[in-house]
Amino acid sequence: MASSCPAISLENIHKSFGGVHALDGLTLDIAAGSFVALLGPNGAGKSTVVDIVSTLTRPDRGRARVAGLDVVAQAKAVRRKLGVVFQTPTIDSRLSVADNLAFHAALHGVARGARAARIAQVLEQSDLAPLRDRIAAGLSGGQKRRVEIARAMIHAPEVLIFDEPTTGLDAAARAAFWQALSRLRAMRAITLVVTTHYLQEVAGADRLCILNKGRMLRDCTPAALARFGQGGVQLLMQPAGPRQRAALLVACPAARAREDGRMSLRLRDRAAAEAVLARHGALLDGYALEAADLETAYLGLFTEDAR
What we know:
Layout: E1 8-17, E2 20-30, E3 35-39, H1 46-53, E4 61-66, E5 69-70, H2 75-81, E6 82-85, H3 97-107, H4 112-125, H5 141-153, E7 159-163, H6 171-187, E8 191-195, E9 207-212, E10 215-220, H7 222-229, E11 233-239, H8 242-251, E12 256-257, E13 263-267, H9 270-280, E14 284-291, H10 294-306
């Protein structure tokens, strides 16, 4: 049974860096045992939330708690509740996989007599047992991410936080990362918080918390976000070259770049898409028109917010 105390509670959090308001009165409760995705464009405040919750930075105003513990007044106790994987890999490339885990087991206070068994257990759960003696410098990007999951789990935390964990990984490595994480969650109830730009990776989340300019833009389920996009269409455009891409961005500022090199534009209906093509078709090598999906519904939120 999930605890009645939120795993994470943010109350009216404000944080500024110079004149930039990274968080502007953010309030958010995350239930114990849930899977929550923090979404939003660069600069929305996602990483600042991670830094505050993980005790790396203090809020200017407001209060943040983890499992009822204040992140400022009880920072050491908070860190014992957390396992955090940051966007930039931080494993020691000079150590073996097992030695990386042993170092962090000692750092987090795992009893000396229990460390060997705990390391073996986490290596097995993360599908890393065959790599236990491999020096980290020789691992692939996907393998290093799995080591970071194992390291974050070494002290049996209540909350796992991942800040854009699959950035820079290829499609196969991203899939392997999520498979490893799914296995761990199936073995043990744990709260999972993920920041990401890949909506397809978090379609199975319990909640999507979408931030923009330090504020909550939308807090909903993936199904509710998909319903927001119903009735719309997604125009996928292939620019004819770099100059045409630049011109298209000026003409259609709501268009977004995709990993496959195309640009996507969410529109209300087919007639609106045909109007865009009539005006700017000369800039394109090709195009496709699709029904709106989760990603286009998400992008549509920012179009609505800008009006």
